[in-house]
Amino acid sequence: MSLLSQWPLLQWREPLWLLLALYPLLLWRLQRRGRNSRLHRYADRTLLPWLEVRQSLSLRQRLLSRNNSYVLAWLLFAIAAAGPRIAEPLPSQETA
């Protein structure tokens, strides 16, 4: 039996723990909002391209970055805390 065929059988003991998976997204959004507001207070919108420094990182460097590792660890923690399990049907007892 393949993993994809067992996907509909997946049950969660504590599904509310999956909300922890949203925490890194919330932090990223708040950090981005604060950074943008600081930049806009510092300079005009037309001058922003001259202020921003973009690093050209390869795909491998971006995927293996420290922040991505933390996010992945946090997501795995949230999934583990939610308690996934595959419910297998009990063998039927035939009565004679």
Give a description of the structure.
By secondary structure, the protein is mainly alpha-helical. The model has no long low-confidence stretch (mean pLDDT 81). The radius of gyration is 23 Å and the shape is elongated. It is built from five helices and two strands. The chain has helices spanning 3-6, 23-42, 48-51, 59-63, 66-82, and strands at 10-12, 84-86. The chain has a two-stranded antiparallel sheet.
Strand adjacency order, main sheet: 1-2
Distance between the termini: 31 Å
Tell me roughly what share of residues is in helical segments.
40-55%
Number of strands: 2
Radius of gyration equals 23 Å
Mean pLDDT across every amino acid position: 81
Q: Which stretches of 5+ consecutive residues score pLDDT under 50?
A: none
Give the secondary structure arrangement, pairings included.
Elements: H1 3-6, E1 10-12, H2 23-42, H3 48-51, H4 59-63, H5 66-82, E2 84-86
Antiparallel strand pairs: 1-2
Describe the structure in brief.
The chain is mainly alpha-helical and 96 residues long. Helices cover 52% and strands 6% of the residues.
What are the main properties of this structure?
96 residues; mainly alpha; two-stranded antiparallel ribbon; 52% helix
